[in-house]
What we know:
Site (Important for catalytic activity): 139
Number of domains: 2
Bound molecules: 3-hydroxybutanoyl-coenzyme A
Number of strands: 8
Strand content: 5-15%
Keywords: Fatty acid metabolism, Lipid metabolism, NAD, Oxidoreductase
Order of helices and strands: EHEHHEEHEHEEHEHHHHH
Catalytic activity: a (3S)-3-hydroxyacyl-CoA + NAD(+) = a 3-oxoacyl-CoA + NADH + H(+)
Number of helices: 11
CATH topology of the largest domain: Rossmann fold
Radius of gyration: 19 Å
CATH class of the largest domain: Alpha Beta
CATH superfamily of the largest domain: NAD(P)-binding Rossmann-like Domain
Structural class: alpha/beta
Strand order of the largest sheet: 3-2-1-4-5-6-7-8
Distance between the termini: 41 Å
Binding site for CoA: 48, 55, 118
Shape: globular
Binding site for NAD(+): 9-14, 32, 91, 96, 118, 142, 273
Amino acid sequence: MIRKIGIVGFGQMGSGIAQVSAAAGYPVLGMDMSDAVFKRGLGYITKSLDKAIEKGKADAALKEKVLGNIKQATALKEFADCDIVIEAVIENIDIKKQIFKELDTVCKPETILASNTSSLSIGDMASVTNRRDRFVGLHFFNPVPVMKLCEVVRTIDTSDAVFKAAFSFAESVGKSCITAKDSPGYVVNVLLVPYLLDAIRQFERGLATREDIDTGMMLGCGHPMGPLTLTDFIGLDTILYIADIMFEEFKDSHYSAPPLLRRMVNAGYLGKKAGRGFYEYDKK
Length: 284
Ligand code: 3HC
């Protein structure tokens, strides 16, 4: 039975997962290596709730409940009594393995460990623990409070009971879930990322302007954002990272990053968060 939630990594994704969990009534313990990042995450939550209150879609009582349900941890040992700990730190396998190794030693034996990774192998992370059967992927989408999906990823070792518990937990925070195998990109990114890479390739070869590529896909296919805006929104570095992992795994040109993407990342054009990507943004 999942009652208490731990979240390690309190950036955009971790804080979003904390928000939906706290809104569903779970006590949430959150942590980030940096106190400033944790505070910024709380700021995202407050802003998102304030916006919802402004629109009449939430009230002050919900805001109080969400913020009241979230507590900050300063060391991994404080996660000992959590029923599930979800990791949402940067996409670096060594850092993730280090965190899971420590969580495995400090958490009670029943604790389920989960990663929100978009592309790294869940099995690889589970291999550094002594609870491979109690390890899953819970891949949420950005912005977490808005996007309805969670991919629940099982490895060859994940037990049926743990998979079901993780699946039910994601449903209980308001998500519709799909089951995915532990394969790079799971279901959504393995389809989405080649589409974004193709849009960048077409922009690079001068097929159309950035606006026309985006408008084409928004109005022609009913997408809420065009592919270049969506790449800016997700982060060019994130898309490059996922593409490189999938290319490394599948050795298929479908997943190879266009030179323009790599050049933009190297030049710091990381998208909305950097104030510039395919478009320019007000950093505030
Ligand atoms: N928190 C809470 N609510 C938010 C929010 C946030 N961070 N951001 C937006 N919203 C809400 C708004 O309040 C608004 O609510 P309403 O409809 O009830 O009034 C609604 O979402 C729409 O927002 P806006 O009116 O501000 O703006 P848009 O209509 O442009 O919608 C968007 C913004 C929801 C981001 C929409 O453009 C969208 O769905 N874009 C596609 C996002 C997407 O594809 N995400 C998945 C990325 S892939 C991924 O995450 C996987 C990873 O591994 C790479």
